[in-house]
Write a structure and sequence with these properties.
14 helices, 304 residues, mainly alpha
């Protein structure tokens, strides 16, 4: 079966999925969609650009807080709040990226980390706007979107469009150039390509998509907290990308689905779920150094 047919089947299955689910599992399905988008946005930096960011959660949090503030305090509809979240995430990414892409390696990673902690402090201390430690709660979509099944389809459409856009970009000449930069930035610069411009454009795109994921999740979960911007939150997309296989486009999506399902199943059975989940992820990564998709490819190739 060719790829277009498999893609069509996957989309149809995703559309039909909530028809057989309870409201709880529909919310979990939305969470899988959100974190799949979030992980792929991070993988634009790591898997395609060779840039390890320790502050990617900053944009997820900015997107979430922007929607929460506009909906909760401003009373604005999602049709206004979501584009505003995209714009705010893009602006934030442009500012952080302008300074961060001037450095490489660990210095780039630490700069992104520092900016994220700055935003975390703002979210924690600006209580009048962000609610401080208590965050912003009671978020809810209006009209039909207040029902989980309709919000799922709404999120699914957005995620499909965003994933299609990123897929098109990484397979465009820009994406090919980005992958060349990952391999040898100096050699690419010698042929007249502006390395910093390409890296900054990628950083802004990744930050904008992460902000979109945060905006979707804020309405789905009904709240936003400063923890979304804390340094520990940036480990989530890293783990998802590595677990699924950050050398492929679909790998981070698979990693996100596995991560979310493990968290839901294990946390429902024991209060020590972080420990158990950590052990499972360590074992999976040691057994599959190229991620789940890498292991799948090796098994497939071995049967030929």
């Amino acid at each position: 079966m060719n790829r277009p047919s498999l893609l069509a089947i996957a989309i149809l299955a995703a559309i039909a999925l909530p028809l057989g689910l309870t409201d709880f599992w529909t919310f979990i399905a939305i969470e899988v969609l959100v974190f799949a988008l979030y992980a792929v946005s991070f993988n634009l930096l790591l898997g395609y650009g060779g840039m390890l960011s320790f502050g990617h959660a900053a944009f997820f949090g900015v997107g979430g807080y922007t929607v929460a503030i506009l909906v909760k305090h401003g009373g604005l509809p999602l049709a206004v709040a979501f584009p505003a979240a995209l714009a705010m995430s893009a602006i934030t990414a442009a500012i952080i990226g302008f300074f961060s892409v001037r450095r490489i390696g660990i210095y780039f990673a630490m700069l992104t980390f520092a900016f994220q902690m700055l935003l975390y402090t703002v979210a924690l201390k600006a209580t009048g706007l962000t609610g401080g430690d208590d965050g912003i709660t009671g978020l809810k979509a209006a009209g039909a979107l207040s029902k989980p099944i309709y919000y799922y389809w709404f999120a699914l459409i957005i995620v499909i469009v965003a994933l299609a856009l990123m897929h098109r970009i990484v397979h465009s000449p820009f994406g090919m150039t980005l992958q060349a930069l990952r391999g040898n930035p100096r050699r690419v610069e010698y042929v007249g390509i502006n390395v910093r411009t390409h890296q900054l454009a990628t950083f802004v795109l990744a930050g904008t998509i992460a902000g979109l994921a945060g905006a979707i999740f804020a309405i789905s979960s009904g709240n936003v907290f400063p923890g979304w911007l804390n340094w520990t939150a940036s480990a989530t997309p890293i783990v998802m990308a590595v677990l699924g296989g950050f050398r492929t486009f679909i790998g981070p999506m698979v990693g996100a689905a596995v991560y979310v399902m493990l968290e839901v199943v294990i946390s429902g059975h024991t209060e020590y779920w972080p420990l158990i989940m950590g052990v499972i992820i360590v074992v999976l990564v040691l057994m599959m150094p190229e991620g789940i998709m890498g292991m799948t490819r090796r098994i497939r190739d071995g049967k030929r």
